[in-house]
């Protein structure tokens, strides 16, 4: 039985924002564990209330807008970044009966479109700040995100060809016999790397490289405006993990456990992978990042499409 749509929207939004806040603590604890040091451990049991303390601190920090900034665009940019991530979750089906628009016939295209719109938030933040470091960071982000959107879009074409649909729910149902991570292993690897670059997480966090650009595109931001960029990044990590689960790991499908729990466990495992990559890998040079995309990921994406098409033609009836 499907819950009323206002309930689904409200609960999904609350869980997503809560998860993004929780991840600010969870990531630091995992980093501490893997790097053999203490993480947050002072506020609450195991430091779990550190996220609450950080939230209170951000709320009470001065909401300062630089006098040299373009005020309207400066305020709008963080909202664009946050809204594109939240809207993308609208088409991700948690279970067969719990999604806002999981049956949208262009669901996958909608996600790619929203991720493309997210570039505007970053670029406008750097431009409106009227600061050299912020502008350099936003230009890096624009080139990186637009480039890796190409590879992300190409990597999922194999999934669409096998499922025969752009609808996220149909893609999950098409994996009832075999998860697409097996026949689409190459596409899954490309999508994962593109997702890390899209969310500009370590090791691909060059738009915010602190040893080069201060804080990159959000150098001039403080208070809740900075908090929105911060939460949007963690919500983006959850989004890319949820998309990987939906497209390649069978979505909510699994034995014994409830479907929602399977979806949560798979997504959580991928979020931990994101954190592990931050702990383990160094940041590449910017030219190395772009070369990885255009010289390696693009040919691999095209190879995956060609191989998938050839196999489907060979097995086509008649």
Layout of strands and helices, then pairs:
Blueprint: H1 5-34, H2 50-60, H3 71-88, H4 107-129, H5 132-155, H6 157-163, H7 168-173, H8 185-198, H9 210-213, H10 223-248, H11 259-280, H12 286-314
Membrane topology: Multi-pass membrane protein
Subunit structure: NDH-1 is composed of 14 different subunits. Subunits NuoA, H, J, K, L, M, N constitute the membrane sector of the complex.
Protein name: NADH-quinone oxidoreductase subunit H
Describe this entry's structure for a reader:
This is NADH-quinone oxidoreductase subunit H. Its EC number is 7.1.1.-. There is one protein chain. With 318 residues, the chain is an all-alpha fold. The chain has one domain. Helices cover 67% and strands 0% of the residues. The protein has helices at residues 5-34, 50-60, 71-88, 107-129, 132-155, 157-163, 168-173, 185-198, 210-213, 223-248, 259-280, 286-314. Helix 1 crosses helix 2, helix 3 (71-88) packs antiparallel against helix 4 (107-129) and helix 8 packs antiparallel against helix 10. The longest helix has 30 residues, at 5-34. The termini are far apart.
Keyphrases for this structure?
318 residues; NADH dehydrogenase activity; mainly alpha; NADH-quinone oxidoreductase subunit H; quinone; NADH_UbQ_OxRdtase_su1_CS; transmembrane; 67% helix
């Amino acid at each position: 039985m499907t819950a009323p749509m206002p309930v689904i929207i409200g609960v999904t939004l609350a869980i997503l924002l809560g998860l993004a806040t929780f991840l600010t603590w969870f990531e630091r604890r995992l980093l501490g564990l893997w790097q053999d040091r203490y993480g947050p451990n002072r506020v609450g049991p195991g430091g779990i209330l550190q996220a609450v303390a950080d939230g209170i601190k951000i709320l009470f920090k001065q909401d300062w807008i630089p006098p040299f900034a373009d005020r309207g665009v400066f305020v709008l940019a963080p909202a664009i970044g946050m809204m594109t991530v939240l809207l993308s979750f609208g088409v991700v089906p948690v279970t067969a009966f719990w999604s806002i628009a999981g049956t949208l016939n262009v669901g996958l295209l909608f996600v790619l479109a929203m991720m493309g719109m997210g570039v505007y938030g970053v670029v406008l933040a750097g431009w409106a700040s009227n600061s050299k470091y912020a502008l350099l960071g936003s230009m890096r982000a624009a080139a990186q995100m637009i480039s890796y959107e190409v590879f992300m879009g190409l990597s999922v074409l194999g999934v669409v060809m096998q499922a025969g649909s752009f609808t996220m729910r149909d893609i999950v149902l098409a994996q009832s016999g075999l998860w697409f991570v097996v026949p689409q292993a190459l596409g899954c690897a490309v999508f994962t790397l593109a997702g890390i670059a899209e969310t500009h997480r370590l090791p691909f966090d060059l738009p915010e490289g602190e040893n080069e650009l201060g804080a990159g595109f959000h150098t001039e931001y403080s208070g809740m405006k900075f908090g929105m960029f911060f939460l949007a990044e963690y919500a983006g990590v959850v989004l890319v993990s949820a998309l990987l689960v939906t497209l390649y790991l069978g979505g909510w499908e699994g034995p014994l456990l409830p479907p929602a729990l399977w979806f949560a466990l798979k997504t959580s495992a991928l979020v931990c992978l994101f954190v592990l990559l931050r702990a383990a890998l160094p940041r590449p040079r910017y030219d190395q990042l772009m070369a990885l995309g255009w010289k390696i990921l693009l040919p691999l994406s095209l190879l995956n499409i060609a191989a998938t098409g050839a196999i489907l033609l060979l097995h086509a009836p008649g």
